[in-house]
Amino acid sequence: xxxxxxxxxxxxxxxxxxxxxxxxxxxxxxxxxxxxxxxxxxxxxxxxxxxxxxxxxxxxxxxxxxxxxxxxxxxxxxxxxxxxxxxxxxxxxxxxxxxxxxxxxxxxxxxxxxxxxxxxxx
Length: 122
What we know:
mainly beta; 7-stranded mixed sheet; 52% strand; globular
């Protein structure tokens, strides 16, 4: 059973930065894709970014491209999401998730963390 624990959320002013971390444990070798999703109140959970742990290929939602950067440290079994130029519309609970191969849909992922709150004030 893969376990995922997010950290790094908090309150930041618009234009600021935060770095989220996702520490994975268990048989992580079975899941090559690590993704970040977010869910704002009253909205569906949406894809933010993903990375292939083996090759390092990265994928981003258009809404965060150029502002967010996903990276991984395989030695530490940790994935990061560096968020710069934050906007109030980035406010959401951010979830880390793991998948075998596909990466854009929530249904592609079978392990999820508990989420971490990010609040961007205007």
